Amino acid sequence: MSSSWPLWEVFVRGKRGLNHVHVGSLHAPDAEMALRNARDVYTRRNEGVSIWVVPATAITASSPDEKDPFFEPSGDKVYRHPTFYEIPEDVPHL
Amino acid sequence: MDLEAQFERTVAAEQRVEPRDWMPDGYRRTLVRQIAQHAHSEIIGMQPEGNWISRAPSLRRKAILLAKVQDEAGHGLYLYAATETLGADRADLTEKLISGKQKYSSIFNYPTLSYADVGVIGWLVDGAAICNQVPLCRTSYGPYARAMIRICKEESFHQRQGYELLLTMMGGTDAQRAMVQESVNRWWWPSLMMFGPPDAESANTEQSMAWRIKRNTNDELRQKFVDMTVPQAEKLGVTLPDPALKWNEERGHHDFGQPDWDEFWQVVGGNGPTNAQRIAHRRKAHEDGEWVRAAAAAHAAKRRVQEDVA
To answer: I need a surface site. Which of B94, B182, B200, B201 has the fewest CB within 10 A?
Structure first.
């Protein structure tokens, strides 16, 4: 096709108080059209109060191949979790 | 652990495979073929019902039908987006559809001859689609499963509007009731064909089940659809056109006759009543839209230049 449009990733805030969440992607010639298309494709039933569109090429992601070493630093730090600590049962509010 | 073993373990543990995970070439190919075919079906599926938008009997029915056809477009887009996470190219898929290299569901190669068809398509065709699609919400490929969850939520509206339309017509005149029955007679067998050929002849089922792309066999889903539909038909007051259809106490299911599989293969092979018309229409819409796509791209490029200067 002579005029293919770039890919945009779409993030929608479902309602006030929630994070924007990735819902899918679409093609559009520019950011403004991407927003309008995202409204029509991803929020036909009041699924959102706010939309972000991001050029797919602008996203940097950790690779699944490096998954184990990349997330390893937090893997062996059990002392970061509250359940690591033993507290007598009769201590209140802790 | 080698990549293939890790993939097999992920699938076996009912975890989802995500876009950048390693996956076997066959898994990727099967998914692209299946999801693209599904996307094409949604897009081509806009035509049979779109045929009645301008002739809907009231503003209410017209607004409903417009919303439904717009949903089909949305479903097509969710699914095309899922194929793109597998490395497929949107323009290439469109080209494959309009050149006949990729298929879409054969059900859309039947014409919509009366307004009752709008109701029957919602009830039977979308009902069969829901039977097929609900298990796909648990399919092993993450983006496909997520698209199916959105689609299933919206299909429920499609089926209910169809059934309500038919209930309204069945409460009308004898002529309206006859129109509904005539429509059911035409759509019943093609609806049963939507589940694909019998398991013994289904080339792709076994591997797709092993990869948990497909979750049930064609015959299982067909049986489920028949069992669900029979009481709905009774309530509606229509007869399903199958003399062999009856409750089997022993099996706890309905027995039913087989569709005409020769007809099925004829339609799949391109010889259905509207195959040529559907593709010609899609091709024309695509080609007529080229100047819009080009103009929007040119406008965006021009604006980028202006912003760079400013």
So the answer is: B200
